[in-house]
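Supplementary Methods, section 5.1.

A reviewer requested that the exact input to the structure prediction be made available. We therefore reproduce it here, unchanged from the version used in the analyses.
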Amino acid sequence: MGFSLLDSSTLHNCTNQIKVIMAKYKATVCRTAYGFTDIEVEANSKEEAEKKILDEAGDHLYSEKSSEFTLDSGAIKTEE
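The structure derived from this sequence is encoded token-by-token as follows.
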């Protein structure tokens, strides 16, 4: 059996016709963002202040500094 060298255009045309079939997967992704803001409250004790600050935390805007992405569970094959 003999081998012949292909010119680059013939090789390019051959490789364009090769189709790689891969399986499809899906997974649930959790995005955890880290943002910071200062909240000031009036309170009679440190414990009361911390409770009030946490109670008010949802009413403030945060400047997001970073975020992380994690998989909730492993990837699941959906198709061949």
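The chain has a mean pLDDT of 84. These observations are discussed further in the main text.
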